């Protein structure tokens, strides 16, 4: 039979991934968010190699220097300096790795661990599934930030302990979301037909369940990434996370709180960085979710 796609190119059937990408590209806000997200990743990976000054390099003659667009600014210090004469631009760029970069690492670990446990729990029955269900209800009743602060209080302050605490706090939401999605899929007729056909559980999970819970995983991942950025910043702001002179954005906010009237850029710039990263993450996540939904329709 002759392939009609060669005669009528417009009839070419797109793969599900191509359909999702085509739907995503039609959303201008999502595309803008994607480019900004890629920019953040590039800054996280390569920014520390390109900064003009060290994160703790002090310039005593330029204390609290205003940004370069101000009348009192200096182009050599584009975003000004803090109360110790440290370059704000260099600290913000390096801080992207400590806040945004580590948030990505935390979310990936939570995604892998939480999804694996959720899939196993959702595919199981009886006592094991019931215990997991009620245990998750207990853990999810505690806000992730509060749980992270409790763990940090036990382990001691520091960025590494903060990352461990936030990872542990973000795993239960992944387990819960995956568990509910898998449990709902297991009740559908095509799963029952696959089991009656003799398909092993691993094959059912790989070919039947995973493709149908991608939207849930994407939505949960972007939501959790925003939460991870805010949690890392909040713990740093409270002085329990990154310690000076580490330029984590939340810690920079906490250290500059007393300067909000004297040098407002030392507070607003880290705050804008946190806001920008969370906004971009939400734009990308919402764009992917809508593209997946449109592709499924």
Automatic annotation (TrEMBL):
Topology within the bilayer: Multi-pass membrane protein
Keywords for the protein's UniProt record, in alphabetical order: Cell inner membrane, Cell membrane, Membrane, Transmembrane, Transmembrane helix, Transport
Name of a matching Pfam family: OppC_N
Signal sequence range: none
UniProt cross-references to Gene3D superfamilies, sorted A to Z: MetI-like (1.10.3720.10)
UniProt-listed GO biological process terms: transmembrane transport
InterPro entries according to UniProt: BP-dependent_transpt_permease, MetI-like, MetI-like_sf, OppC_N
Cited CDD domains: TM_PBP2
Location within or outside the cell: Cell inner membrane; Cell membrane
CC per GO annotation: plasma membrane
Highest taxon in the source lineage: Bacteria
Domain ABC transmembrane type-1 per the UniProt entry, residue ranges: 96-285
Cited PROSITE patterns: ABC_TM1
Principal location listed in the UniProt entry: membrane
TM regions (residue ranges): 34-55, 100-123, 135-156, 162-179, 225-242, 262-284
Similarity field: Belongs to the binding-protein-dependent transport system permease family. OppBC subfamily.
PANTHER family xrefs: OLIGOPEPTIDE TRANSPORT SYSTEM PERMEASE PROTEIN APPC, PUTRESCINE EXPORT SYSTEM PERMEASE PROTEIN SAPC
The protein, known as: ABC transporter permease subunit
Source organism of this protein record: Aeromonas enteropelogenes
Species classification: Bacteria, Pseudomonadati, Pseudomonadota, Gammaproteobacteria, Aeromonadales
